[in-house]
């Protein structure tokens, strides 16, 4: 009788552990933010970005530039400008202020375009995981669609979003219509049978 009880207990524990293993990795409690800063203004610039600066009617100040590893941009006539961590629109304002401050032009009109945007990475249970160009307004679902859609093993709608914040990766639970940012990692989890 004791052997029978201990066998039953062992089977119950084994079954419980087996079911727990089938649950797969769990999602974090923290939900991804629904609002994205600076989507309208563009992406935040980072070291290594290639940008095109146009100062209207000033070819000596216009051209293609690369943000260096310290986050600065070296421009002719006006010197270094901090470019990392701001939008293209904010950088245009900084450049215009510096041109004005150097008394080079009274009312400079400056535009800044980023020609290299950080990608979005999609991995996990999708048909074609990889690196994809970020497009304004991109959501988790549109990123998954760019990766060929859900794989047959996917836990549809259960997505882990990994985002860099203050230089550290932060895991979020995301829904299909959660907006993504450049540099985000979208990981579709595997369902268990």
TrEMBL record:
N-terminal signal peptide: 1-20
Any one GO molecular function term: polysaccharide transmembrane transporter activity
Cross-referenced PROSITE patterns: PROKAR_LIPOPROTEIN
Pfam families reported in the protein's UniProt record: Poly_export (PF02563), SLBB (PF10531)
Domain Soluble ligand binding: 120-168
Keyword Signal tagged: yes
Name recorded for this polypeptide: Polysaccharide export protein
Species name: Rhodospirillum rubrum (strain ATCC 11170 / ATH 1.1.1 / DSM 467 / LMG 4362 / NCIMB 8255 / S1)
């Amino acid at each position: 009788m004791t052997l029978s009880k201990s066998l039953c207990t062992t089977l119950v524990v084994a079954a419980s552990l087996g079911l727990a293993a089938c649950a797969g990795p769990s999602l974090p409690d923290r939900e991804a933010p629904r609002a994205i800063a600076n989507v309208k203004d563009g992406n935040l610039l980072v070291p290594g970005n290639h940008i095109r600066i146009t100062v209207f009617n000033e070819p000596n100040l216009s051209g293609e530039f690369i943000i260096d590893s310290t986050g600065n941009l070296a421009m002719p006539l006006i010197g270094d400008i901090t470019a990392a961590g701001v939008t293209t629109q904010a950088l245009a304002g900084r450049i215009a202020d510096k041109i004005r401050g150097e008394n080079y032009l009274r009312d400079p009109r400056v535009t800044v375009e980023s020609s290299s945007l950080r990608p979005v990475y999609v991995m996990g249970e999708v048909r074609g995981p990889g690196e994809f160009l970020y497009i304004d307004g991109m959501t988790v679902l549109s990123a998954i669609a760019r990766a060929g859609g859900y794989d047959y093993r996917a836990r549809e709608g259960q997505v882990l979003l990994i985002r860099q914040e203050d230089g550290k990766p932060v895991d979020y639970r995301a829904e299909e219509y959660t907006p993504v940012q450049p540099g985000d990692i979208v990981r579709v989890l595997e369902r268990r049978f």
